[in-house]
Amino acid sequence: MSSTLNTLIRELAEGGLRVVDLTQPLGPDTPVIGLPPMFASSPGVTIEQISRYDDAGPAWYWNTIRMGEHTGTHFDAPIHWVTGKDLPENACDTIPPGRFVGPACVIDVSEEVAADPDFLLTVERLEAWEAEHGRVPAGAWVLLRTDWSRRTGTDAFLNVWDDGPHSPGFDKATSEALAHDRDVTGVGVETVGTDAGQAGGFDPPFPNHTIMHGAGKFGLASLCNLDQLPPTGALVIAAPLKIVEGSGSPLRVLALSPS
After folding, report:
1. From CA 212, how far away is CA 208, in angstroms rounded?
2. Which residues neighbour 258 within 8 Å (Cβ) at sequence distance 6 or greater?
C-alpha cells in the first residue's frame, strides 16, 4: 500500500481528517424545483413499502422509490443540458470515475446573500477570494457557500415570489471563467439548482447550466454543511449512481476535511 494511502487511513483513524456529509436528507418532504406549466415537471419523492418483516417478506424490509434524477442533493451531468448533449463521456454511466473526486474551493458569500437573495458571484468577487486563498486549481469543485440550506420548509427554500423564484447563483462571466480559465470539475450550491432563481430571464437563460455543461463540467445542487469546510484544503467525493444515459442522479456528497 502506498504511503499516501497509509497516511490517509491513519489520519482518518486518529481524527486528523474528518468526513463531512454535504448531503440533505431525501424523502417525501424534499423540495423539488418548479417549472412553468408549459414544461414537464419533475415529481417529488414517493416511497412505497414492499415488505417489512411481514407476510410480503417475513425477514426483510425494502421499498420502491420514485423521483426525478435531479431531486434533493443531486448531480448534473453534461448531457442534462442541450449544450452538452453531444459531448463524449457526458452521462452518469460514461463519465470516468476519477472525475468525481477533486479539491474543494469554498467561497463564502453568506453575508451578501443574507442581504440580497438574488446575489450573483461576480468575477471580481471570485478574484478577491483568489487574492486571499490562491487561484482556483484545475479539477476543483467550486462550492458556493450561501447558508441557503439553513432555510426550513419548502416555501422558504424555493423562495418563489410573484415574479418567480429568488435565490443566489453565478454571474455569466464567472461561469465562463470557472469552466474555461480555471478548468474546474464543476460547481456546487446550497440552492435547488446551480443557476440563480431568476436565471430563466438571463441572457442566455440559465447561463451556468449552458456554460458549465457545454464545457463538459458538472453541477451539484442542494448541498449543506459547507460552513464546516475550510476555504481550501478539503477533498470532495461526489459520485452519482451509474444510471445508463443518466442526466443526473441523487447522490451522497462527502468531503474529507482537516479536523
Report:
1. 6
2. 16, 17, 18, 230, 233, 234
Catalytic, out of 70, 80, 209, 213: 80
Cell of 94: 460514461
Strands 186-189 and 218-221: parallel
For 14-25, write each residue's pLDDT tens digit: 999 999 999 999
Q: How far is residue 88's CA from residue 107's CA, in Å, rounded to a whole number?
A: 30
Q: Decide: pTM greater than 0.85.
A: yes
**What residues are paired with 160 via a beta bridge?**
165
Tens-digit pLDDT profile for residues 195-224? 999 999 999 999 999 999 999 999 999 999
Asked about 133 being catalytic, the answer comes back as no
Q: For the chain, where are the E strands, in sequence order?
A: 17-21, 46-54, 57-66, 74-76, 101-108, 120-121, 141-145, 160-161, 164-165, 169-170, 186-189, 218-221, 234-237, 248-250, 254-258
Residue 112 CB neighbour total at 10 angstroms: 15
CB 171 within 8 A of CB 202: no
| Helix (H) or strand (E) segment spanning residue 211 | helix 207-214
Name, in order, each residue with C-beta under 8 angstroms of 46's C-beta and a sequence gap of 6 or more: 28, 65, 66, 67
